[in-house]
Thymidylate synthase (Desulfosudis oleivorans), 218 residues
Amino acid sequence: MNRSEEKNIQRLLVLQQRGRGETKTAGIKAYGQDRFHIDLVSVEERLPAVIEDTSAYLPETIDADLVLDYLAHPDLSCDLADKCRDRGIPVIASGKKYKNRWVYTPPICCALPRQADAGPYGQRFGYPEFAVTLSADNRIKDVRVVRGAPCGASWKAAEKMRGLPASDAVVRIGLETQFFCSADPAGWDPLWGKSPVHLAADLHAHAFIKAVEEGRKR
């Protein structure tokens, strides 16, 4: 058993192009409760439209518990998925389309379902979950983020909710999430009919409404 296993630390391999994974990596470090060891592989050069041999850009061997794919080039992502499949390593590649049972492809990072077999990462990051405490006058007394976006938007938006009337907070959480979200606002998903940023706002709003309702029952 290695040192990481002794401390129950999950080893993440993050592959990115031109900084696409920087905010997520920073968020995992900031809000991951010291449960993750991150190795980062960055591809910075301009790439041809078609890459027949991706070995110059991908690690020769992959030694990780989970791989996060923030690559933009489809040839790199495709070959990465195949390498991980051969080693039985799960991959999270948000917004991508694969027919590969090793790869989870939620439309955005904060849409990863809890049932995804992603270990500690999946317990901490993905579809948002909040625990809300209300004051006697129905204001947000406290908010705890149980599970949130790897970019950290869930935690940053939640901080803004404290002291607000609950009726205002369930609307405001979506707006604040959009402000802190690192997804590309120019993207548009025809299936969802929304940009990634608007989808993130909706997911957080629904999760916060549920948390407020549960807070009222306590």
